[in-house]
């Protein structure tokens, strides 16, 4: 008989609520500030122009917030997790795109109405002003980046190509700032307005440089990561063991991931997010990857002693976000890597159930390690092997409930292929598992 776990609530995650409240307050204060500055600047030549100016101010704010999202600030990442930040990054990108289309269109209409000329004539007149031309170029680049980021286009691009396209965002920001400085009436209206915008841009760009450049460079200079061993786990899966100096000072937790580069064995812009497949122990790190991309395929050829450049750690897929004393860990395919690390985490207390979904038993990477860890902590491990094409559906609500009758009283961690993760999350909603108890890792990145 399976014992049913009582829904005991944990309290150690309260600081996260304070951080989240502060972040929400920051965003709302900036939205309010933009509205105040727009009002203080006074009306434009006509109502259409005034609306166009408001759209432009919100476009600038959205671009600054987008920079903060892609800066991958540790405080924000720990509070929300990279998956949620990536979702916000996507929706903010859509907002930026629509504002980048609406702002010039409305401004152009306002000029045409004020001067009593046709839209082509107004466009020709505005095109002769270099700051306006910079804004138009920035808007065009925004549309290109967003168009290549929609799912239909994204599926046709490799991760490396998608990453390279997103580098255009930095050029967009430069052109947008120049356009605002030289053309923005609300920017020049008052010293307070200029101070606000310069302060916001300095904060956003500074956060980006710190999060994406300065901190990673300092950490890599401190730890000097090197390949210690390369171990083939199966025909298409390999583990890379990494050592370095003072790894006990690296703020990594089980369930998190890094962006990995291997200088000399790949191009600098070729970078992949690989989760730690073992809990950090202060002496070494381990990643386990399946050969599906240009970077992961070459991992088995890495020589011992090769330099490693890591950016991170990232992700809130850790025990810090637990709400309940008992846990379910659900893995699919190579998504087992952070799940295996979580199972080893000494901070994961309480009863644990592990569900490992694979097509066949021979595809179950790290299964021996999972069994050993499950035995050591008296966890239940279920290997769910079978092909979806044959009708095997282990994650329907009924089957989930049969495997874990007390699932609503547990935290649920899910990592695997997107289709599997989507199916599990849908079943958890139908079972009315509270969303705050559900934690998913889809290996998506903001920027």
Give helix and strand order, one letter per element, not per position: HHHHHHHHHHHEEEEEHEEHEHEHEHE
What about the largest sheet? Answer: 5 strands, parallel
- Proportion of residues in β-strands: 5-15%
**Strand line-up across the major sheet:** 9-8-7-10-11
Mean pLDDT across residues: 86
Secondary structure class reads alpha/beta
Percentage of residues in helical conformation: 40-55%
Number of strands: 11
The gyration radius over C-alpha positions equals 25 Å
User: How many helical elements?
Assistant: 16
Q: Based on the structure, what is the oligomeric state of the protein chains?
A: single chain
Instruction: Give the terminus-to-terminus CA distance.
Output: 48 Å
Low-confidence segments, ≥5 residues, pLDDT <50?
1-7
The total domain count is 3
The dominant shape is elongated
Summary?
This protein has 16 helices and 11 strands.
Write the layout of secondary structure elements.
Layout: H1 14-41, H2 47-70, H3 74-80, H4 82-115, H5 119-127, H6 130-147, H7 151-154, H8 159-166, H9 168-183, H10 185-188, H11 191-223, E1 226-232, E2 237-243, E3 257-261, E4 272-275, E5 284-290, H12 294-297, E6 309-314, E7 326-332, H13 336-344, E8 352-358, H14 367-376, E9 380-385, H15 397-403, E10 410-415, H16 418-430, E11 438-441
Helix pairs in contact: 1-2, 1-3, 2-4, 2-11, 3-4, 4-5, 4-6, 6-9
């Amino acid at each position: 008989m399976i014992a049913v776990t009582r829904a005991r609530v944990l309290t150690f995650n309260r600081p996260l609520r304070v951080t989240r409240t502060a972040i929400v307050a920051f965003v709302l204060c900036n939205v309010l500030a933009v509205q105040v500055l727009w009002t203080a600047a006074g009306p434009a030549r006509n109502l259409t122009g005034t609306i166009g100016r408001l759209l432009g101010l919100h476009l600038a704010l959205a671009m600054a917030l987008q920079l903060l999202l892609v800066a991958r600030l540790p405080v924000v990442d720990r509070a929300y997790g990279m998956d949620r930040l990536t979702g916000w990054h996507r929706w903010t990108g859509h907002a930026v795109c629509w504002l980048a289309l609406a702002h010039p269109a409305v401004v152009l209409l306002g000029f045409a109405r004020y001067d009593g000329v046709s839209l082509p004539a107004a466009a020709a007149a505005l095109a002769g002003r270099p700051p306006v031309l910079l804004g138009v170029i920035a808007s065009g680049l925004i549309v290109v980046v967003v168009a290549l980021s929609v799912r239909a286009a994204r599926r046709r691009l490799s991760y490396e190509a998608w990453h390279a396209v997103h580098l255009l965002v930095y050029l967009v920001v430069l052109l947008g700032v120049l356009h605002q400085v030289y053309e923005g009436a609300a920017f020049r209206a008052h010293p307070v307005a200029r101070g606000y915008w310069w302060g916001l841009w300095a904060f956003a760009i500074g956060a980006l440089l710190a999060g994406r450049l300065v901190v990673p460079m300092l950490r890599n200079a401190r730890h000097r990561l090197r390949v210690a061993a390369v171990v083939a786990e199966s025909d298409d899966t390999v583990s890379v063991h990494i050592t370095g100096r003072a790894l006990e000072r690296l703020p990594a937790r089980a369930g998190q991931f890094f962006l990995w580069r291997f200088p000399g064995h790949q191009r600098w812009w070729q970078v992949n997010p690989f989760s730690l497949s073992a809990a950090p122990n202060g002496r070494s790190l381990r990643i386990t990857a399946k050969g599906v991309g240009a970077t992961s395929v070459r991992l088995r050829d890495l020589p011992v002693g090769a330099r490693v450049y890591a950016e991170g750690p990232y992700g809130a897929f850790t025990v810090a976000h637990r709400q309940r004393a008992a846990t379910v860990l659900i893995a699919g395919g190579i998504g087992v890597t952070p799940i295996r690390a979580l199972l080893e985490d000494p901070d994961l207390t309480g009863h644990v159930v592990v569900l490992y979904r694979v097509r066949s038993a021979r595809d179950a990477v790290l299964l021996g390690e999972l069994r050993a860890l499950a035995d050591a902590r008296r966890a239940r491990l279920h290997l769910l092997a079978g092909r979806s094409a044959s009708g095997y559906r282990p994650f329907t609500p009924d089957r989930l409930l049969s495997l874990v009758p007390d699932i609503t009283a547990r935290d649920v961690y899910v990592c695997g292929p997107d289709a599997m993760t989507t199916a599990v999350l849908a079943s958890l909603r139908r079972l009315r598992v509270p969303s705050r108890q559900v934690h998913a890792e889809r290996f998506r990145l903001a920027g």
